[in-house]
Specification:
Blueprint (H helix, E strand, L loop, with lengths): L14 E5 L3 H7 L4 H22 L3 E8 L7 H24 L2 E6 L7 H13 L6 E9 L1 H18 L9 H5 L12 E4 L18 E4 L9 H12 L9 H5 L2
Parallel strand pairs: 1-2, 1-5, 2-4, 3-4, 5-6
Helix pairs in contact: 1-2, 2-3, 3-4
Bound molecules: 3-methylbut-3-enyl trihydrogen diphosphate (2 copies) and magnesium ion.
């Protein structure tokens, strides 16, 4: 049986998040500069996006650039930003052909103007699409997200439009960059690292974590199917006992 047909389409995660990692090592293995790895990661982005949309996943969030990634060599940061503009421009048509809406989370106002403009245009040009939402996490970190949410709520309290006793989990969730999106049920990280690297800390409170040694530029549709099949074999207990869930 091929991998795709092993997936139970009734039990798909509504939201999958991916920490795309390992581009640098992929390039190094080939004796090439790190940027070569980033360029080859674009195909993996396309494969993950297409396969998630084909299956019927509603949200796919890709960690593309963290607030910490500014600390990389300037040449690499510049190359990543240029690749972002280039890829976005090239992919708008494919996104529209597949009815995929683009959104971002992160402080995009700190991105170079060219990157920000290309991004805002792509968001606008794909805003009518309904099949899947592709969320690019750009200049994102979870601590930034949570701090911004706290600041927004503090401003509302100061203005008198929110009472402190009305702050609850729903209000807080709606102040985050992911407002309106379901929390990711499956978080994938490639390249063998088993850490979260400041990604979606609040939102992954109950996500299933899946770590694969595959380096991001090698990630193909089958790898996404593997992750989903693995997810579907887990028992998600949400604090309950296994017996409560199975009735045994
Ligand atoms: C992920 O690959 C891409 C970004 C963080 C932008 P890396 O560039 O982190 O690759 P490794 O981890 O050094 O191999
Ligand atoms: C996490 O990868 C950020 C992105 C995938 C964009 P990194 O490669 O930057 O993470 P660390 O530094 O190894 O934790
Ligand atoms: Mg890395």
């Amino acid at each position: 049986m091929d991998k795709k047909s092993q997936i139970n389409l009734e039990k798909l995660p509504r939201h999958i998040a991916i920490i795309m990692d390992g581009n640098g090592r992929w390039a190094k293995e080939r004796g090439m500069a790190r940027v070569f790895g980033h360029r080859n990661g674009v195909k993996a982005v396309r494969e993950a996006t297409e396969s998630a949309a084909e299956l019927g996943v509603e949200y796919l969030t890709l960690y593309a650039f963290s607030t910490e990634n500014w600390n990389r060599p300037e040449m690499e940061v510049n190359a990543l930003m240029a690749l972002l503009v280039d890829t976005i421009k090239k992919e708008i048509k494919t996104l529209n052909d597949n009815s995929i809406r683009l959104q971002t989370i992160g402080d995009i106002f700190k991105l170079p103007e060219k990157s920000r403009k290309a991004l805002l245009k792509a968001i606008e040009d794909t805003s009518h699409n309904t099949r899947m939402t592709l969320v690019l996490a750009l200049n994102y970190s979870a601590k930034w997200d949570i701090t911004e949410a706290a600041r927004k709520l503090a401003i509302q309290v100061k203005r008198g439009s929110l009472q402190p006793e009305d702050v609850n989990e729903d209000v807080f969730s709606n102040a985050l960059a992911t407002a309106g999106m379901p929390d990711p049920e499956l978080l994938i990280r490639t390249s063998g690292e088993a850490r979260i690297s400041n990604f979606l800390l609040w939102q992954i409170a109950y996500a299933e974590l899946y770590f694969t040694p595959t380096l991001w530029p090698d990630f193909r549709k089958e790898h996404l199917y593997d992750a989903i099949i693995n997810f579907q074999h887990r028992e998600r207990r949400f604090g309950k006992t296994s017996e409560q869930l199975t009735g045994s």
